[in-house]
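Summary of Year 1 activities. Much of the first year was spent building the evaluation harness for sequence design. The harness presents a backbone, in tokenized form, and records the residue chosen at every position. We chose the following record to illustrate the format because it has been used consistently in internal testing since the harness was completed.
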């Protein structure tokens, strides 16, 4: 069947990319002189400790601060700007990390807005150094607090109305409501939310590279990059990469063990007002929490915009390297998005076709499992590991920079694959459930089914998936940081170079351009998914 063949090709491609990287790392580690002794190197253990420490702190701060924010928003179902605020909370996920870094520095840096404000009040030394653990935590909380809050709000909104009616009859106050109603619901989702944020911070590359501030604040991924690009020590890079792989796999296994099932409570789905919404003190407290979260997210974006408006855009647009970076970024982003969608769709239709064939053989079950979980393997091997493996492999055959564009496109496409599967998967399941029997009764299959039945329904999901995958690729710095050169310069790499040469105004202008590209993609996707007026 064509669907099974497409899925097999996709799985084979994933296996080649990952096995090639892992094989190159393993062989280099085994053949490098003294590689085994480096496992006990003080530098490696220091990097590993800081990697876990900053990820743990980031997860605790993000989740801890998100709980009151999620409670406040869930409790206030109606207030001016609620929908806009929830959309604002989705914005950090669409913004490139470099854009956020520049905004965080503009607000919290030594010469940032907060420092200037404290200086005006006579507090001259009130701000810690932004370059180091402080800056890393600020940037990670900016990214992950909104994510955690949105996920928690989804859990809280599933609380049945009967619970609120019962709490009202019992006269429960806000503290008792949190303890007996909200906390059990949040507790079931907290391991998954905290684990996701912890993994994202473990794999954080751009934030740590730009805000790390030296050897004392270096994570494994940044150490891999430094070992390959600056120290030219592939042996150390390989050991670091294998340690990163082992840590990531261990953490995913622990996260799966800690995940708690969500118990569905029977409900009549009737809307019932919460008993803790009417008090003036509660309204003031919720308003303060919501306003503080909104300001925390908005301020870096406003600061970056203000800084970028002073950039010499006329001079920047006259530079050939800027146009080269823009075209390279758009080309790589579009190609990576197409590759990502092709892989995701191949895996989805192959898994669906295999399930419908009702095969009982062990290989049939294994094929279905491989298709369903293959796209998530990139979470075990983050992009910097794939990049390091292929950097070592291609450097050994003398093709490192000749094949660099293809490698960057492939890694960027795989990086977006888990997210694309989560966008296309539910849409494909709904379309298949609605169309399978009808198309079978009409004898409609192949291209005719795709053109007449599936595509009109799936088009919005494909638009969102393409926009999200391309936005992720546009803002990625991991792969291109290893393979970038004068002939392969993207906007994130150019921004990093301008920051390194202390041309911060140019970097802010280029960051604004990059942010605009990403936001336009997301807005276009939202517009494509919106139903026209009068359409049902």
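For this record, the design step produced the sequence shown next.
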């Amino acid at each position: 069947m064509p669907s099974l063949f497409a899925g097999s090709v996709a799985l084979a491609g994933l296996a080649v990319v990952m096995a090639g990287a892992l094989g190159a790392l393993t062989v280099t580690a085994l053949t490098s002189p003294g590689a085994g002794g480096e496992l006990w190197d003080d530098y490696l253990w220091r990097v590993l400790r800081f990697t876990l420490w900053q990820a743990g702190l980031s997860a605790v701060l993000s989740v801890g601060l998100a709980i009151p924010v999620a409670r406040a928003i869930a409790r206030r179902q109606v207030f001016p700007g609620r929908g806009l605020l929830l959309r604002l909370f989705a914005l950090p996920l669409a913004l490139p990390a470099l854009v956020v870094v520049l905004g965080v520095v503009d607000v919290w840096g030594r010469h940032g807005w907060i420092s200037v404000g404290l200086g005006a009040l006579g507090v001259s030394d009130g701000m810690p150094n932004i370059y180091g653990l402080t800056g890393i935590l600020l940037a990670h909380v900016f990214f992950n607090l909104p994510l955690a809050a949105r996920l928690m709000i989804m859990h809280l909104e599933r609380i049945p109305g009967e619970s609120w009616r019962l709490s009202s009859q019992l006269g429960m106050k806000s503290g008792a409501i949190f303890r007996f109603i909200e906390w059990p619901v949040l507790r079931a989702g907290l391991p998954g939310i905290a684990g996701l944020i912890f993994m994202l911070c473990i794999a954080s590359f751009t934030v740590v590279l730009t805000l790390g501030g030296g050897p004392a604040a270096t994570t494994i991924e940044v150490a891999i990059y430094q070992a390959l690009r600056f120290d030219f020590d592939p042996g150390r890079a390989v050991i670091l990469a294998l340690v990163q792989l082992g840590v990531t796999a261990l953490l995913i296994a622990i996260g799966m063990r800690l995940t708690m099932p969500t118990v569905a409570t029977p409900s009549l789905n009737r809307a019932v007002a919460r008993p803790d919404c009417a008090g003036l003190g509660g309204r003031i407290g919720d308003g303060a929490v919501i306003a503080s979260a909104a300001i925390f997210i908005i301020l870096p974006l406003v600061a970056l915009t203000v800084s970028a408006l002073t950039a010499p855009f006329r001079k920047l647009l006259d530079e050939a390297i800027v146009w080269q970076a823009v075209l390279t970024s758009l080309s790589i982003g579009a190609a990576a998005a197409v590759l990502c969608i092709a892989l995701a769709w191949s895996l989805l239709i192959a898994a669906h076709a295999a399930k419908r064939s009702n095969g009982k053989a062990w290989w049939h079950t294994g094929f279905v499992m491989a298709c369903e979980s293959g796209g998530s393997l990139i979470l075990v091997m983050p992009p910097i590991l794939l990049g390091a493996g292929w950097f070592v492999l291609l450097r050994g055959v003398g093709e490192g920079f000749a094949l660099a564009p293809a490698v960057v496109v492939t890694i960027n496409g795989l990086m977006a694959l888990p997210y694309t599967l989560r966008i296309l998967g539910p849409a494909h399941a709904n379309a298949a459930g609605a169309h399978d029997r009808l198309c079978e009764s009409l004898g409609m299959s192949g291209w005719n089914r795709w053109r007449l039945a599936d595509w009109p329904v799936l088009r919005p999901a494909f638009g969102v998936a393409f926009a999200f995958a391309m936005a992720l690729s546009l803002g990625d710095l991991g792969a291109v940081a290893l393979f970038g050169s004068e002939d392969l310069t993207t906007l994130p790499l150019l921004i990093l170079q301008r920051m390194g040469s202390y041309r911060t105004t140019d970097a802010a202008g280029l960051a604004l351009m990059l942010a605009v590209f990403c936001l336009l993609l997301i807005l276009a996707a939202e517009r494509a998914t919106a139903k026209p007026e009068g359409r049902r």
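The chain has 22 helices and no strands. Quantitative recovery figures across the full test set are reported in Table 2.
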